């Protein structure tokens, strides 16, 4: 065994309380190097009476390592533990004090999980585990009230630019709630709604006032109430990293300079605040002079922004916040933000916009979830021919091992957004590849999100082209694709195994882009078969039982001589299931 590859620390994603009775332990070994790993567990005050040797399951792998996992339910909420590793004739033990070849003498020198304190358990909203999100840019979804259109409004469906307007508003969303309910989604994420001069509204001027081109605060209240009546949750976008340049406190700084009482609300590096050669003399989002960055460590700024967060939770019974540019705001602010929001609504869902490994924000004291752009990147790379099944399984295993299980169950998975090209564009306008991506999205662990219009085949390159108007003319919609989305949403919502069940690759090999994977809980077992090539393929995998059915047609599908053989057209899939109870 390569001892240098062994790794465990008694904290964060390696040892954590999943709930008030269960501790999850994870352990890392070199890829394909160790045959068995056992967790030696017990109570340090009563080791002999509580000792258990628990086999660990190989839960995931990446290109270099295997990751082992076990659920432990300690009798007294305390846990002392070590690991026993076996390969051939070799056995070693890993303790808190290091690696040794002799069995430990408990309880000394063991790792410890001192106590499961309920207040410390990372709890995520249960409803988010069941959610299917639909992301809406209000300006581009539907124009329900032409009387509030901007003066410069253009005809619906025109070419989007960074500056133009088409008149979408909240009344337009309200008018199409039946469409959303019929599609099957049960949660909406809105990009910013508050007063701002741009079409995207990420340059906020008034954080407590709905932009008049979208409607009024009362319109938003009416919309949220209507959503709740049909079982749809609502999450708004919080832009707390920066404001717009027309935000009154920043205007005061521009006017009064160093004498402004708001000078410390922002990061002013040099007075007067100005932009020279494209570089502002104050910190901003990127280098956009019209988006000055807040000093969130300033007590007045913190009080103001936390007041905004609480206001909308209480005012309209908001179900959560998506946090823009969340990784550039200090952790102290987000810890206080969580306290305020969860006190106002304990089931509020907090999603941070962080594009890379986000563990620092996902340890129970800040966010519930993040926008999982690494998921989108790897899925699209795979289904667009950029890697084989072996490397894809490595990449997905690495993503699963990034976070504790409760985060994985609600991580915000999407295939595109207002910041990326459209899904159909990203797969080269090949609807077969799009369907493979969507099947994977809806049969994978986490909370899936659809970007408005993807379900009817809207195309679009990078911003601003991805922000096209929703197509409401059914003659111009891809209705077959719409019905496919509807089918996959229904399948996911119908079966807990597809939401919270275990995920594992069954077949993912080198130089072959075809994969087979499974999702299962204690009631249902699903297998998903994908031919990610341009030629017909037959995929085979051992199956002991004969009680399989097609999940979409309910047709009986039996293995032959305990080998399941699934013939698939190019870029096609099949989903099978069986009942376990």
From TrEMBL:
Keywords: Glycosidase, Hydrolase
Domain Glycosyl hydrolase family 13 catalytic, chain residue ranges per copy: 135-492
GO biological process terms, semicolon-separated: carbohydrate metabolic process
Keyword Metal-binding: no
GO molecular function: hydrolase activity, hydrolyzing O-glycosyl compounds
CDD domains with a match to the protein in the record: AmyAc_CMD (cd11338), E_set_CDase_PDE_N (cd02857)
Gene3D superfamilies, per the entry: Glycosidases, Golgi alpha-mannosidase II, Immunoglobulins, Oligo-1,6-glucosidase, Domain 2
Keyword Hydrolase: yes
Sequence similarity: Belongs to the glycosyl hydrolase 13 family.
The protein's name in its UniProt record: Glycosidase
Record organism: Fontibacillus panacisegetis
């Amino acid at each position: 065994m390569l001892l240098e590859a062994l790794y465990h620390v008694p904290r964060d994603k390696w040892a954590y309380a999943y709930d008030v009775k269960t501790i999850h332990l994870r352990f890392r070994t070199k890829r394909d190097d160790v045959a068995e790993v056992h967790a030696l567990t017990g109570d340090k005050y009563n080791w002999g009476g509580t000792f258990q040797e628990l086999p660990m399951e190989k839960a995931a792998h990446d290109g270099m390592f295997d990751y082992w996992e076990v659920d432990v339910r300690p009798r007294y909420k305390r846990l002392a533990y070590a690991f026993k590793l076996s390969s051939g004739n070799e056995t070693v033990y890993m303790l808190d004090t290091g690696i040794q070849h002799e069995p430990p003498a408990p309880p000394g020198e063991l790792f410890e999980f001192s106590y499961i304190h309920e207040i410390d358990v990372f709890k995520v909203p249960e409803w988010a585990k069941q959610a299917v999100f639909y992301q809406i840019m209000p300006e581009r979804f539907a124009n329900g009230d032409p009387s509030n259109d901007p003066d410069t409004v253009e005809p619906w469906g025109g070419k989007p630019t960074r500056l133009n307007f088409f008149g979408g508003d909240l009344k337009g969303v309200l008018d199409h709630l039946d469409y959303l309910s019929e599609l099957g989604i049960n949660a909406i994420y809105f990009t910013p709604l508050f007063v701002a001069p741009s079409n995207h509204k990420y340059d906020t001027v008034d954080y407590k006032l709905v932009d008049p081109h979208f409607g009024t605060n009362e319109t938003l209240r009416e919309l949220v109430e209507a959503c709740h009546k049909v079982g749809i949750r609502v999450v708004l976008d919080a832009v707390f990293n920066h404001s717009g340049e027309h935000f009154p406190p920043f205007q005061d700084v521009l006017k009064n300079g160093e004498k402004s009482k708001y000078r410390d609300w922002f990061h002013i590096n040099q007075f007067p605040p100005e932009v020279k050669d494209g570089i502002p003399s104050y910190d901003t989002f990127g280098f956009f002079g019209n988006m000055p960055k807040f000093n969130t460590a300033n007590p007045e700024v913190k009080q103001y922004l936390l007041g905004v967060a609480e206001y909308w939770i209480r005012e309209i019974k908001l179900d959560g916040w998506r946090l823009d540019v969340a990784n550039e705001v200090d952790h102290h602010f987000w810890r206080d933000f969580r306290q305020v929001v969860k006190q106002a609504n304990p089931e509020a869902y907090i999603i941070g916009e962080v594009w890379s490994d986000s563990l620092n924000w996902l340890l129970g004291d800040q966010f519930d979830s993040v926008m999982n752009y690494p998921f989108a990147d790897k899925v699209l790379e795979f289904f667009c021919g950029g890697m084989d099944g072996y490397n894809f399984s490595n990449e997905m295993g690495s993503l699963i091992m990034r976070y504790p299980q409760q985060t994985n169950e609600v991580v915000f998975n999407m295939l595109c957004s207002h910041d990326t090209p459209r899904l159909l564009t990203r797969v080269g306008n090949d609807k077969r590849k799009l369907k493979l991506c969507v099947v994977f999205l809806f049969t994978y662990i986490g909370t899936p999100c659809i970007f408005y219009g993807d379900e009817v085949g809207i195309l679009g390159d990078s911003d601003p082209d991805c922000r096209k108007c929703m197509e409401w003319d059914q003659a111009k919609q891809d209705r077959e694709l719409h019905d496919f989305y509807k089918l996959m949403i229904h399948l996911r919502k119908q079966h807990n195994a597809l939401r919270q069940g275990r995920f594992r690759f069954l077949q993912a090999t080198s130089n072959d882009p075809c994969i087979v994977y499974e999702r299962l809980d204690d009631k249902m077992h699903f297998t998903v078969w994908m031919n990610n090539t341009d030629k017909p393929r037959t995929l085979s995998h051992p199956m002991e039982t004969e009680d399989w059915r097609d999940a979409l047609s309910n047709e009986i599908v039996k293995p032959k001589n305990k080998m399941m053989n699934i013939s698939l057209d190019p870029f096609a899939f099949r989903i099978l299931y069986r009942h376990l109870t």
